[in-house]
Design goal:
Organism: Nonomuraea roseola
Order of helices and strands: EHEHEHHHEHHHHHHHEHHEEHEHEEHEHH
Keywords: Hydrolase
Shape: globular
Largest sheet: 9 strands, mixed
EC number: 3.1.1.-
Pfam families: Erythro_esteras
GO molecular function, one term: hydrolase activity
Low-confidence stretches: 1-8
Mean pLDDT: 95
Length: about 450
């Protein structure tokens, strides 16, 4: 039977509302103690966001990270940023000497590291690691080069092979072809996709075949390589290559006009990377968009829903995978229109959340910051949540069944742009600096 759409008066009972006192990452954590029962023994706690680059989502994740590390012994923070580049911030939080601005600009992809709130994340992790015998590490889970360049992953693999297999030289045409459409940042994405599309089909095929040859060589010579290099170095290089191969496959899908296939490639691979990290860490805090972490198909306008990372992880991990989704009522969100590339980075959320959405239901419950544990609702409250059919992801709505997608939902009354970090921007590519200089925060 099809659920009836919610009206604007639909709301949860007061018993379903768990007020949260603050988003301040440095504040006392006592208001989060209700999480102990909800989390249980889960090995991966995923924290979603409705859109990237909002101050409030950064602060929420920072605060939850603190709680999960300090109270539950979580040892890794994995986020929607490049896996290959993530080695740089991981080294820094463990005591590395690089300038933090350089680390933020070059160790995090897709503009994720260019914000003061992300600086606070990393600085807290470094302070924690200096004072404990149980450090927390940083990992990226996503494609290299902000999903517009194969070069970071390819260069990492070539550097490893120079040590493990010094008599071998990779076909130089592989890197030459990758360089022909490489981009330096997310702002170069349209130009990079256009350049890839202009490659001759035979050239694209040769690139794909060359990457496959590299993987075959690395897997066949694993024991030989391990006699001369550390196991971790080998495993990281092989993971870097696998992710780079996925990015190549994603570009091939886009060139064929198959955006759905591209999304499927990405979601499965980032799930593989989370599982790779889980093989090295006891418990992981996973930070990514709601559409990635949810146990429900991910959808963007104009594209068929695709199996999400969260669905893959739920299938593999069962109850060891717990998802905290997020909603918001008002404020500014990431601009997804073409003028983003000209420096209009954010746009106003359009009005109150639409009736029938999870955001509207949550906004009607409480004026402030709060959470709802979907696994411990009364029958009436559970029925109200089951009547929800969609959720706002920034500037668009996507179909969702919240009771299936999430374990917990945190509602943020208002979201605002994060604050640009000038030290990180100083190390960013020119086109990034130019776009940020044209943005006029309110």
């Amino acid at each position: 039977m099809t659920a009836k759409p919610l009206t604007t008066s639909a709301r949860l009972s007061d018993e379903a509302v768990i007020p949260l006192s603050t988003l301040d990452p440095a504040a006392p954590l006592d208001d989060l103690e209700w999480l102990d029962l909800a989390i249980g023994d889960a090995r991966v706690v995923a924290i979603g966001e409705s859109a990237h680059y909002n101050r409030e989502f950064y602060d929420l994740r920072h605060r939850l990270l603190r709680y999960l590390v300090e109270r539950h012994g979580f040892s890794a923070y994995a986020t929607e940023s490049g896996f290959v580049e993530g080695r740089l911030p991981d080294t820094w939080v463990r005591g590395g000497e690089e300038q933090l601005g350089h680390v933020m600009a070059n160790g995090m992809t897709s503009l994720m590291g260019l914000w003061k709130q992300m600086r606070a994340h990393l600085e807290w992790m470094r302070r924690h690691n200096r004072t404990t015998a149980h450090p927390v590490g940083f990992y990226g889970i996503d494609m290299p080069g902000s999903m517009v360049s194969l070069l970071p992953g390819l260069d990492a693999v070539i550097a490893y092979l120079a040590q493990a297999d010094p008599g071998f030289q990779a076909d130089p045409h592989i890197r030459e072809t990758a360089a022909a459409f490489a981009a330096t940042s997310a702002f170069s994405a349209p130009a990079a996709f256009s350049a890839y599309g202009q490659l001759a089909p035979a050239t694209r095929d040769a690139l794909t075949a060359g990457l496959a040859d590299l993987r075959a060589r690395m897997t066949a010579r694993r024991l030989d390589y391990l006699r001369g290099t550390a196991a971790d170095a080998y495993e990281r290089a092989l993971r870097s290559l696998s992710i780079t191969i996925t990015l190549d496959a994603m570009l091939r899908e886009l060139a064929r006009g198959d955006q759905h296939g591209m999304m499927l490639d990405r979601e499965a691979t980032i799930a593989d990377t989370v599982e790779w990290i889980l093989g090295r860490e006891g418990r992981i805090v996973l930070a990514a968009h709601n559409g990635h972490v949810q146990r429900w198909p991910s959808a963007v306008p104009g594209v068929s829903p695709s199996t999400s990372m969260g669905m893959h992880l739920a299938d593999r991990l069962g109850e060891d995978y717990l998802v905290i989704g997020t909603t918001s009522a008002s404020g500014q969100t990431l601009n997804t229109s073409p003028d983003f590339y000209a420096g209009t980075l954010f746009t106003e959320l359009e009005g109150a959340p639409q009736p029938g959405s999870l955001d509207a239901l949550m906004a009607a419950c409480h004026d402030g910051l709060f959470a709802t544990d979907l696994r411990r609702l009364s029958p009436a409250d559970a029925a109200a949540v089951r009547a929800v059919s969609r959720q706002r992801h920034g500037t668009y709505y996507s179909g969702v069944s919240p009771m299936d997608a999430y374990d917990i939902v945190v509602h943020l009354p208002r979201v605002t742009p994060a604050e640009p970090d000038e030290a990180a921007l100083a190390h960013a590519p020119h086109e990034v600096q130019a776009a940020f200089s044209r943005w006029k925060p309110e």
